[in-house]
Amino acid sequence: MAIPSYATRGERIWHTVFLGICTLVFLFLVGPLLVIIPLSFNAEPYFTFSEEMLTLDPAGYSLRWYQDFFTSSEWLGAIKNSFIIGIASTLLATVLGTVAALGLSSRHMPARGAIMAMLISPMIVPLIISAAAMFFFFSKINLAQTYLGVILAHTALGIPFVVITVTATLSSFDTTLIRAAHSLGANPTRTFFKVVLPLVTPGVVSGALFAFITSFDEVVVVLFIAGPEQRTMPIQMWSGIREQISPTILAVATLLVLLSMLLLTTLELLRRRGERLRGVSPG
Amino acid sequence: MSHSSSEPLTTADGVPLKVSLRRAVRRSKLKALLLVSPLLAFLVIAFVMPIFDMLWRSVDNPEVSTHLSRTVEALKGWDGESLPEELAFAALVEDLREGQEERNLGLLSSRLNYEKSGMRSAISRTARRAADLEPPFRESLVEAHRAWGELDTWRLIQREARPYTPSYYLAAVDRQVSPEGEIVKVPAHLEIHVALFWRTFWMSAVITGLTLLLGYPIAYLLATLPLRRSNLLMILVLLPFWTSLLVRTTTWIAILQSQGVLNDMMVAIGMIADEARWQMIHNKVGTIVAMTHILLPFMILPLYSVMKTIPPSYMRAARSLGGKPLLSFRRVYFPLTIPGIAAGGILVFILAIGYYITPALVGGQSGRFITNYIAYHMQTSLNWGLAAAIASILLFVVIVFYLIFNRLIGVDKVKLG
Question: Which residue of A has its CA nearest to B293?
Answer without folding.
Answer: A29
